[in-house]
Structure formats: C-alpha cells, structure tokens
Write a structure and sequence with these properties.
mainly alpha; two-stranded antiparallel sheet; 10 helices; 4 strands; 67% helix
Length: 194
C-alpha cells in the first residue's frame, strides 16, 4: 500500500503569475465599484456609508406607505405560515412554510450572523439597538420584495413556477429590460427549468 506524499510540490511561479494577472485586471474594477457603493460621508463626526442610509430610507418609506405592515399583519403572517389558509388544490410547488424558509435562507447568511457578533463586540448595546431598529424597518422592505415576487412570478405550462428579482424587474419595467445590460442580467439569473 503506497502512501501519498504529505506535501504536494507546487510551482509558485506559474500559479502566482496567473493570480497576479487576474488581480491586475479585476482589482481596479472591484476597488472602483466598492468606492462607489460603499461611499462614506461624515455624519456627526462618524463615517456613515450612504448605502446604509438608502436601505434605512427605503425601510422607513415602505413602513409608512404600507401603514406599519410588519406590525399590523404579524398574526396573519403566522397563520399563513402555519398553513391555516392552505388548500390542497392550490397551484405551486412548495408550501407557505417552505417559501418562508427559502426566503430566509437567501436573506440570512453566515456573514450576517458573524456581523452581528462583531458589531455587538465593537459597538456595544448601541449597536444592538440600531440593529433591531434596522431589522424592524427592513421587514417592510422584505414585504415589498416578496409581494412583487409573487405578483410578477411566471407560471409555466408544466406547472413549475419561476421568479425572483430579475424576473420582477423585467416584468414590472419592460422598457428597462430592453436595454442590453438588463436583458443579459435577467437571462443570467433566470432559474433553470426542468
């Protein structure tokens, strides 16, 4: 019985050259986009990323426009997830609970979980308070996203359903989907049908 060598000989010259050439192309693009997306302004002596402001603003506007939907309809949401309104003959491939679990799995990830730990460690109780406020406001944003996803989903002839952000954007704003970049983006992200 032969044993594998404990160390694999490598050729740092070739791999390092490939890595450096890839980095030389994508690093300036990544840095430029990161500088735009995460641009910071100084607010009361603290650096504040504008994107966080946009997300909070959207949450506030949706909360006010829909009349605090995330608090008003919590009972209805729990009844729907428990299956009280589910009929056996309803179209679709998954149950309400499976849809909720799928939406949560796409929203909450390891980065969010680790980010909370780091924020509490660095920011203390104040960070916890602002995370709770941002989370409550973001519930209205998620409500809008899911509602649009249901409204603009596509039901295919074989009964399968596809949808998502790009399907919503292409259906809600057809003129925007005629631009080459939006059309390519939508085609790339469409779910694969069986």
């Amino acid at each position: 019985m032969s044993s594998l060598p404990s160390t694999v000989p490598s050729q740092p010259g070739v791999l390092e050259n490939i890595e450096n050439s890839i980095n030389s192309v994508f690093d300036p693009i990544s840095s430029g986009l990161s500088g735009i997306v995460f641009y910071e302004v100084t607010v009361l002596g603290a650096d504040f990323p504008i994107i966080v402001g946009w997300l909070i603003l959207a949450g506030v506007l949706f909360t006010l426009y829909f009349g605090f939907v995330q608090f008003r309809n919590i009972g209805l949401a729990l009844r729907i997830v428990r299956g009280r309104y589910t009929r056996r003959d309803e179209p679709g491939e998954i149950t309400h609970f499976q849809a909720l679990a799928s939406a949560l799995s796409g929203t909450v990830g390891l980065g969010n979980i680790a980010g909370v730990g780091v924020a509490v460690t660095v920011g203390g109780p104040g960070a916890t308070f602002w995370m709770i406020v941002a989370g409550l406001l973001s519930m209205a944003t998620k409500f809008v996203e899911c509602t649009l996803g249901v409204k603009y989903r596509e039901v295919h002839a074989d009964g399968t359903v596809s949808g998502g952000r790009c399907t919503t954007c292409g259906s809600a704003w057809p003129s925007a989907s005629r631009t080459p970049s939006a059309a390519a983006w939508g085609r790339c992200w469409r779910p694969v049908r069986r």
